[in-house]
Each structure stands twice: as structure tokens, then as C-alpha cells.
Amino acid sequence: MPQCPVCNAAVSLETTPTAPFCSDRCRLVDLGRWLEEGYSVPHAPSDDEEDDGDGETVDLSKLLPD
User: Fold this and answer.
1) Are 60 and 48 within 8 A, CB to CB?
2) For the segment 9-60, what is each residue's pLDDT rounded down to a tens digit?
3) What is the value of pTM for the model shown?
4) What is the distance between the alpha carbons of residues 22 and 32, in angstroms, rounded to a whole number?
5) Residue 21: Cβ-neighbour burial (10 angstroms; 0-12, 13-18, 19+)
């Protein structure tokens, strides 16, 4: 049986309306973690985002047309 990603309680996917969470509380805890940037989606930097090694940060917004 699957487990709630927040509290690890067993979750029945067929009968639990908040699946994959065991309750509304766990669903909201998970949402709060996303909103507070506790989670993130990993991504590989593109060629434009890579550091050129000089220690300076490149502001990509200056490269975009107004």
C-alpha cells in the first residue's frame, strides 16, 4: 500500500479523496513546502546560464529585448 509523502501513513488510493496524501493536513503541509521553496525541481543549466568562471554573476534579463 502506498504511503503519504509527508507523514508516511498508509494511503488507500481507491478510497482516500486526498490521495496520495492521507489527509488535507498533509496535502497543505506539502503545498506549504513548495511555496516556501523547501522543494525544487532540478534542472541542468543551459549554455546561456553557465558561469564563465570570472566570479561574476551574469544578469540574463539584460540580454532580453525590452
Assistant:
1) yes
2) 999 999 999 999 999 999 999 999 999 989 888 888 777 765 555 556 767 6
3) 0.59
4) 16
5) buried
How confident is the model at residue 45, as a pLDDT?
A: 78
Tell me if 22 sits within 8 A of 14, measured CB to CB: no
Three-class SS of residue 10?
A: strand
Domain parsing of the chain, residue ranges? 1-39
1-39 belongs to CATH 3.30.50.10: yes
Number of other residues whose CB lies within 10 A of the CB of residue 11: 21
* CB proximity list for 58: less than 8 A, separation 6 or greater: 49, 51, 52
Tally of helices (H runs) and strands (E runs) in the chain: 1, 0
